[in-house]
Amino acid sequence: RDSASATPPPRTAGPEAVAPAWGKGDGVPSRMAAFLSSRGAPHGTGDAIIRLVELTDEEGRPVAIVEFDTVVRVHIWIECVRACTVSVNYKIRNRQLVSVAGADFLIAGCPLEQMEPGRRYHVEYTTHLALQDGDYTLRSSVTTPIDRHDQAVFIDVVEVAAPFTVLPAARGRIYTQAY
């Protein structure tokens, strides 16, 4: 149920391009500055740096409280320092930091992104939050997969970002982490 898209460079196949929300009028630079001041030192090779991780509604407004099974978008903004070929990934983790959902380029059926130094990239995943009510965060990573999902070289990792709460399902109690 996840889909992903990335820009730049434009693609002829794979994920659809999205407008890089990187301009001054959209508020991203100020949210990026706040994120960078709170994220701590980058982890990984440093070939690319995650500049912002956000959870938004379908119109692109950041959200912190969502209804059960709401469609949301996970936005990850990255700046390339050195050329690298990567997958941009996210996991939704519960308050014990156990991963309960997530996606990466391989799972979403997207080709790896060939990043160029000095370029900025915006990756967007769309997913349903069919999760048990409670508190969650996003873990985001930029990796170079080795043997598909067996191993990876970590380019950058943000362990805890975009905290949010899923409200109880109106249809009845959910007893599993993901439904």
In summary, what is this structure?
This protein is mainly beta.
Key descriptive features of the protein:
mainly beta; 179 residues
Question: Secondary-structure blueprint of this entry?
Answer:
Elements lengths: L2 E5 L20 H12 L8 E9 L8 E2 L3 E11 L3 E11 L4 E5 L1 H4 L4 E3 L4 E10 L4 E13 L4 E16 L13
Parallel strand pairs: 3-10
Antiparallel strand pairs: 1-8, 2-4, 4-8, 5-6, 5-7, 5-9, 9-10
Can you walk me through this structure?
The chain has about 180 residues and is mainly β. The chain contains two helices and ten strands. Strands 3, 5, 6, 7, 9 and 10 form a six-stranded mixed β-sheet that branches. Residues about 5-20 have low confidence and may be disordered.
Tell me, what's the shape? globular
Low-confidence stretches: 6-21
Q: What order do the SSEs take from the amino end to the carboxyl end, as H and E?
A: EHEEEEEHEEEE
Count helical runs: 2
Gyration radius, to the nearest Å?
Answer: 16 Å
Instruction: Let me know the average pLDDT.
Output: 83
Strand content: over 45%
Helix fraction bin: under 10%
**Biggest sheet: strands, sense, closure?**
6 strands, mixed
SS class: mainly beta
Number of strands: 10
Distance between the termini: 12 Å
